[in-house]
Amino acid sequence: MKNIVGIGLLILMLVSTWHFLLNGVDGRLIFYSSLILTLFLVIIGFNIFLENRDPIQTITWLVIFCAFPFIGFIFYFLFGRNFRKDRIFRKKYFLDKQTFVKISGEAGYNERIMEMGEHPQQLINLANRLGNSPVSFTTETRVLRNGEETFSNIIEELKKARHHIHLEYYIVRDDRIGGLLKDILIQKVKEGVKVRFLYDAVGSWKLARSYIDELKNAGAEMVAFGPLHLPLLNNKFNFRNHRKIIVIDGSVGFIGGLNIGDEYLGQDQKFGSWRDTHLIIKGEAVRTLQLIFLQDWYYSTNNSFLSDEYLMTGMPNHHGYGGVQLIGGGPDSEWTIIKSIFFKMITSAKKSVWIASPYFVPDDNILQALKVAALSGLDVRLLVPKNPDKRIVFHASRTYFPELLASGVRIFQYNEGFMHSKIIIVDDQMASIGTTNIDMRSFHLNFEVNAFLYRTESAQQLVNDYMEDIKVSKEVEIDEFSKRNFGLKLLESTCRLLSPLL
Q1: Please, which residues bridge with residue 454 across strands?
Q2: φ, ψ for residue 422 (rounded to 5)?
Q3: d(CA 261, CA 174)
Q4: Is 272 helix (H, G, I), strand (E, B) or coil?
Q5: Strands 473-475 and 221-225: what pairing?
Q6: What residues contact 109, with CB distance under 8 A and at least 6 apart?
Q7: DSSP secondary-structure letter at 284?
Q8: Under 8 Å CB-to-CB from 80, ≥6 apart: which residues?
Q9: Do residues 277 and 145 touch, judged by C-beta distance below 8 A?
Q10: 3-class SS at 357?
Q11: Would you state the pLDDT for residue 315?
């Protein structure tokens, strides 16, 4: 049944087109089309039932098929097909695992892990077991608080490159900042630097062909992740690469929430100021970031560069940075890695859980963990944007507010522009920063990457920045929030119905 939806749509189109050519539009065309559509919706519904998905997700699909057959058919065709993602990415998963296991045994750091204490030790071991990634105690990190800081540091480090530059992004724009980075990359190619650029085919679908051709003609390698040659028959359409990675000479790396585009510099008229968080990494942990990129590159090109010239990093002699662990998660993973670590962070917290996420559509596990933490007396806070950029997700997220507020979670809406940071801070000591939103797409469908920080100066900086963000945010009061008009509540509930599919 792998291509049943694609086959169904093709049959429907062919029958409708053939009948139209012979007879024009009449009742029989409508009858035949409706009959075929109904037949395939029944088959699809039965297939969803056999996939043993989450019951809520299964019921949601069946309700949509009954209420909006044609729209539901198209929506499922684009976003709902499972196709056993473990089969699609099986080769990638085992290659990644073998590579990470090989390098994880090289670091003798057991004593340092013991020194971190029981709480960080549990998270480190869980992340290591699920993500096959060691923790580094010789890695320097620094928080970059906005687009200006982020791109100025990226440009500075790119200009220093001597051997290679690796970039992996979900969205790339052909605008001012995108053009500036392109020009720098072309110049570095002329200087003999190897440039490899992996961009997501869906996230960057608006990227001009001329942008890609200029880089390729200059000698850079630019490759689309998950190209959509035949979108209607592509069973990987729904699995996207949401990672934002730069690795320079194997010793400097960047990850975080910012894609490449002028809006991330606050130059979008709709949103104005853009609040985001990125991280610059120097030292040993960059090797893990490099491995994540190289494995994604190999999956997309069948070209492997797993050699010492790409995996030997400059490691600082200083050992006072705390722990840094880079984790990549995605539909190729045996476990929902990053979600599992988030869940453990929340359930093992002793004092506080602070979260910032632009898109908040949690599954039942994360939602229950937050409510129980708040009911237990912990300081649980959620920071979200006041204004939406994705309206369905925005309205769906607000339906979770009443039960969170009732359990004691404090919710703040960021007022100064758009808030795009993806942060979790636990007990003021451990933090996560990266590309993962608190939503089902990030947990189950997207390729993501996060840095987990244990008692580092950067973790403390994230605490300070979060407190500053709270000062320019408005707290949601349960009494005021409950007074929303009926039309808005109806819209939010409709979006909530779609949330398992987002």
Answers
A1: 323, 430
A2: -125, 90
A3: 8
A4: strand
A5: unpaired
A6: 134, 135, 136, 137
A7: T
A8: 48, 61, 238, 501
A9: yes
A10: coil
A11: 57
pLDDT band at 110 (very low <50, low <70, confident <90, very high): low
DSSP label of 241? B
Tell me the chain's radius of gyration from C-alpha atoms: 24
CA-based nearest residue to 353, from 381, 327, 317 = 381
Express the helix, strand and coil content of the chain in percent, nearest 5 each: 50, 20, 30
Taking the C-alpha atoms of residue 274 and residue 157, their distance in angstroms, rounded to an integer, is 23
In order, the DSSP letters of 177-213 are HHHHHHHHHHHHHHTT-EEEEEEETTTTTTS-HHHHH
pLDDT digits (tens, 9 = 90+) for 234-256: 556 678 999 999 999 999 999 99
135 neighbors 113 (Cβ within 8 angstroms): yes
- Residues 183-223: tens digit of each pLDDT: 999 999 999 999 999 999 999 999 999 999 999 999 999 99
Q: What is the pTM of this model?
A: 0.82
SS3 380: strand
How far apart CA 24 and CA 40 sit, in angstroms, is: 24
Rounded to whole angstroms, the Cα distance separating 256 from 154 reads 12
Residues belonging to the active site: 242, 244, 249, 420, 422, 427
Two structure tokens written together for 453: 């920080």
Six-digit token pair at 310? 């790409």
Over residues 395-416, the pLDDT tens digits come to 999 999 999 999 999 999 999 9
Q: Which amino acid is at 128?
A: N
